[in-house]
Amino acid sequence: MSLKTVGTAVTRTLWTKGNRTPPLARSPVNRLSTACRVFGGGKQDRENTKEQSCSSDSTRPSAGDVPPRPRAAAGGEKRPEEAVGAPGVTRVRRRSFTSTAAPVDQRSHLWARYNDMKRMVHELIPPGACNLLNSSTIYANNEVSLAGVDIYGFDYDYTLALYSNALNTMIYNTARSFLIEHFKYPEDIGKYDYIPNFAARGLHYDIQKGLLMKIDAFHYIQPGTVYRGLSAVPDDEVLQLYGGTYHVPLQQDSGFYGKGPKVKQFMDIFSIPEMTLLAVANDFFITNDIDYDPVHLFKDVSEAIGMVHLKGYMYKWVMQDLNKFILRGEETEAVLHRLVSHGKKLFLITNSPFSFVDKGMIHMVGKNWRDFFDVVIVQADKPHFFTDCIKPFRRLDGNGDLRWDKIKRLDKGEIYKQGNLFDFLRLTGWRGSKVLYFGDHLYSDLADLMLRHGWRTAAIVPELEHETKVVSTGRYALNLTWLQALTGLMERLQTSRDPDSKQVFQEWQKEREELRVMTKNFFNPQFGSIFRTCHNPTYFSRRLCRFSDVYMASLSCLLNYDLSYTFYPRRTPLQHEAPLWMDQLCTGCMKTPFLEEMSHIR
Questions:
Q1: Closest to 269 (Cα-Cα) out of 549, 534, 530
Q2: Local structure of 526: helix, strand or coil
Q3: Is 445 assigned a catalytic role?
Q4: Among the listed ranges 162-166, 302-306, 399-403, 409-413, which one has the minimum average pLDDT value?
Q5: 484 and 532 Cβ atoms separated by less than 8 Å
Q6: How buried is 86 (Cβ within 10 angstroms: 0-12 exposed, 13-18 middle, 19+ buried)?
Q7: d(Cα 229, Cα 339) in Å, to the nearest integer?
Q8: Bridge partners of residue 59, in order along the sequence
Q9: Cα–Cα–Cα angle for 155, 158, 161, nearest 5°?
Q10: Segment 51-108, tens digit of pLDDT
């Protein structure tokens, strides 16, 4: 039984409970008892055990207390007339308060429903349900058939080459030194070491306020994920800073490429050291009560990080110790060999310089790595490569020096620099959905290719490996299932507004918030999952779904699939479709709990 089956079972039970008798006049245990008979698995002894455990409380009424539903008459007799609602609303019965169940005080009734649901959640999660996720899976946002893909394109950094976390530490340490030596920042900032698990990809940074935060797909800040320096900002203060709301207006938020006038989104893995250095520098000024301008700090940190890349420090570190910094190179070689052996054409478009790419590819693939690729383009200046049509291609000789001849075709075995996508399309004729391009940066690598040119796109998200391991743990599965069940319970029973009920709901709401914090901390204590903000997708997740047809933890995931394989996205219900989907976990089963009362509305 999978977690999906568990959701189906719990949902079916809530559906059963929610469509027979009004909340105050029915016994929750009778419905649960009915559900247990359904979930027994088909064996008589299991059914008996379930029924006995669900109805052991002697204070609960028996099934005979619930009035039977009217049945259709046999033969040709007409069905008894029923009260109907608005025109077009069929088979809607008016509520009948004829139950003979013994009255129960509302507080006890709510807690009985709570306990029944909690017991059901614990009983229905099977032992093997937590081992269903595989970090080597390719996940589909859009239907893609590899049989129709003839050309495969790749970025280099964090796509063909995956780097160890040691690289982030080196980038942070060097940029911190630049802050002190070049920008004359206080030397005591040097006492702050790199914090590996502090920041996460996809976060937003308010440049004027100096705040690092996580924003959801609807531009709302997730409470509890706003940091000034290394300290969390209380939710009340966040509301005060943003005018009484968690919403960040579109005009202030990051633009199409993640760079807005007041807020920037950090979208690539190379930005994690930058976020950490921003937090550390802010923390230093705040804890030492030194007046500073967050805008100047942001600019200086950005330049310091940029100097690490522009001055070639990162390239030197990697080339000096390839074994330390490059991970799983043999898997890259296996992917390229498999694609070429099946007659696929390959190309490489990267912003990195040729000497750096050449060293890395020789390490991973071998000296003849260029034989795998039909076109190789370095220092492409993405994302401008995809949008500008000005820069021409230039050819490099064997030593990496520029040649002056005009480029009339793109030849295999040659190395080209700069250029633009429009000339690339003209010279190769590689257009549309027969091209699949892999990259790690949703904006610089994938957005324009999907939206402007109709290429298929594949996002490399290394964080998936960690996140799928977390989701596969029993504790996470139990917490999440109970969180969903409790949310569904609160949604279904929210019509109870007497003082006792309000007190119960306050306790439930407090537990719900605690469960949310617990599920967040499984991933990252500061910011949680890069894909979720409580129940909503993150801003990063929204962009991932928008700009990538498929996504995966690493390029090696391709090795698990046949090259004629079709990736199908799972059809998940829209909110207005939820009542029709039994695999919705609790919250989707009764989106309109007062349908009968509202039937008179036209």
A1: 530
A2: coil
A3: no
A4: 399-403
A5: no
A6: exposed
A7: 46
A8: none
A9: 85
A10: 333 333 433 333 334 344 444 444 444 444 444 433 343 443 433 333 344 446 889 9
For residue 535, the model assigns a pLDDT of 82
Radius of gyration of the chain (CA): 29
The 3 state secondary structure assigned to 434-496 is: HEEEEECCHHHHHHHHHHHHCCEEEEECCCHHHHHHHHCCHHHHHHHHHHHHHHHHHHHHCCC
Binned at pLDDT 50, 70 and 90, residue 558 comes out as very high
Question: What sign results for the dihedral spanned by CA atoms 6, 7, 8, 11?
Answer: positive
φ, ψ dihedrals at 326, nearest 5° = -100, 130
- Write b or e for each residue in 200-237: b if 16 or more Cβ atoms lie within 10 A of its Cβ, otherwise e: bbbbbbbbebbbbbbbbbebbbbbbbbbbbbeebeeee
- The mean pLDDT of 510-539, rounded to a whole number, is 93
pLDDT above 90 as % of the chain: 63
Is residue 482 within 8 A of residue 514, CB to CB? The reply is: no
d(CA 533, CA 516): 9
CA separation (Å) from 371 to 151, 203, 335, 363, 398?
Answer: 15, 39, 14, 15, 14
Contacts of 543 (CB under 8 A, 6+ apart): 267, 442, 443, 447
Amino acid at 124: L
Stated pTM of the model: 0.78
**Catalytic annotation, pick one of 116, 155, 253, 358:** 155
How many other CB atoms are found less than 10 A from the CB of residue 39?
23
Give, in order, the Cα–Cα distances in Å from 285 to each of 238, 442, 597: 20, 33, 59
Confidence of residue 21 (pLDDT cuts 50, 70, 90): very low
Gap between the terminal Cα atoms of the chain: 43
Using alpha carbons, select from 457, 459, 158 the residue that is nearest to residue 328: 158
- What percent of the chain is modeled with pLDDT above 70? 76
Answer whether residue 328 shows pLDDT above 70: yes
Q: Which two tokens stand for residue 142?
A: 């859009």
Q: Which of 23, 3, 8 is nearest to 491 (CA)?
A: 23
pLDDT confidence bin for 334, thresholds 50/70/90: very high
Measured distance CA(144)–CA(549) in Å, rounded: 7
Count Cβ atoms below 10 Å from residue 186 Cβ, excluding itself. Answer: 14
pLDDT of residue 255: 63
**C-beta separation of 146 from 566 below 8 A:** yes
- Residue 583 annotated among the catalytic residues of the structure: no
If you average pLDDT over residues 262-272, what whole number do you get?
A: 92
Alpha carbon dihedral 331, 332, 338, 341, in 10-degree steps, equals -140
Secondary structure letter of residue 322 according to DSSP: H
> 57, 116, 150, 157: which is the annotated catalytic residue?
157
What per-residue confidence (pLDDT) applies to 72?
A: 43
